[in-house]
Amino acid sequence: MKNTHSRIPDAGTDELPRELVELGKRLALLAPQEQGELPQLYGQVVESTRRRRRILSLVQEALSQLRLDIKYLMFDLEVTRQERDALREQLDERAD
Description:
Elements: H1 18-29, H2 32-35, H3 38-95
């Protein structure tokens, strides 16, 4: 009976490039004596890729939040300017 458990880390196809998944499949087909350090190195590349994707996702979320915050700040600034102008007009009317 053939062992179906691979020493190559599971490469979730939804988060890894197709080429990296294909490389993992080909490494798994090699005989254990031919694999050498390749499974460990492949695992490091997979983890690095996943980490980069998580970082990219966090940066994209932060940028989206920053854009939203800037929109709110611009709105607040405009309202504040309008309130300031209205108060100036009231002061000018009282001064006359």
